[in-house]
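Hello,

Our lab assistant flagged a job as stuck in the queue for most of the afternoon. It eventually completed. Since we weren't sure the result was trustworthy after the delay, we are filing this so someone can double-check. Below is the sequence as submitted and the structure that was eventually returned. Let us know if re-running is recommended.
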Amino acid sequence: MILFFFKYIDFAIDSINAVLRFYYFDEISCRFDLILPVGISFYIFQALGYTIDVYRGDVEAEKNFFRYALFVSFFPQLVAGPIERSKNLLSQLKEVHTFSFERMKDGLLLMLWGYFMKLVLADRIAIFVDTVYGDLDTYTGYYVLIASILFAFQIYCDFAGYSTIAMGVSEILGFRLMENFNAPYFAQSAAEFWRRWHISLSTWFKDYLYIPLGGSRKGKLRKYLNLFLVFLVSGLWHGASWNYIIWGGINGMFQIMGDLGKNFRDKMQGLLALERNTFSHKILKMVLTFLLIDFAWIFFRAPDGSDVLKVLFSMIKLDNPWILFDGSLYQAGLTQKDYQLMWIGIGILILADLFKYKGICIRHRILRQEWWFRWLAGLGSVLLLLILGIYGYGYDARNFIYFQF
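-- returned structure --
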């Protein structure tokens, strides 16, 4: 009820008024216009997960009020996750923690990577994306296409950047948070994407909503209905707006269509003599999955339905290919150097995620090197952040995107 009142009461009233207007009834004049507490969805879901775990008997009820309060309000991940489970974090709060220089080094490297994702990439990409999406009448065609592709990287770097910083801070304090992102854009299907993206929320919905609804145990139709319902709720969790609900529904449909089309894809691969394990086949599936997910992100980014239609029609027309070559892209908020630096940074991000996808941990490789190399890597990273980060005079401070959820 607390979450509904703070986050959804005005949305519910507006939706009811829309129905009343359609049937020419008097509208509800009451509005609350409440200030949304930062991160309310995250810590309420964390507390709710604990309550359900206790009810199921999966964990014992915490008798120490202060330990429970620390679990709910653990500051590194309080405002934007990851949504921790009582089995993981609450049990760590009962342990004795001592300072570890090794954990501090590991945590600092995690934080540096998180700051790179946020300050160098997400906030730089945001300038271009906000410029284009803020004036869809001026910026059309390839502007919109590039901005929509870039938004996929912006929201990834913004959200994963926060989660990585939170993991690093917790590591220094002696706590290990769950991994929240695992190279999501290397996924080869929509279902795999959601096993790699916002893992703490995806697994939360699986354990506390999808499985209690029956999961896949009650036939195909019930399975698809449960999937679709979970993604609609996930969309609503992200924001009190119909565009978020539609975004969730689209991702749910991708999951259902992917499962329904499995037999057809298997037959076509046999007829065309395609080999699934080849590099080219995997790349094709990754690209197609990225395009599907990126299409759904349009509904997440666009402020309302009319802007969604503008974006889609503009991307269909693509009537200005010359902007790719005449320098016009450098007039959309970023200078030529910043624009080029942005793509170099995205290349570094993709390379780092490729190592992660292959199971190679770069920071552990760095920590195994000699002391002079470790210091050179650490100080060099700090220097690059100070030089290349987006901050200071002339830039508006940007909150993390998921602070609003």
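-- support follow-up --
The delay was a queue issue, not a problem with the job. The result is valid. Residues 42 and 83 are 6 Å apart (CA to CA). The chain is about 65% helix and 0% strand.
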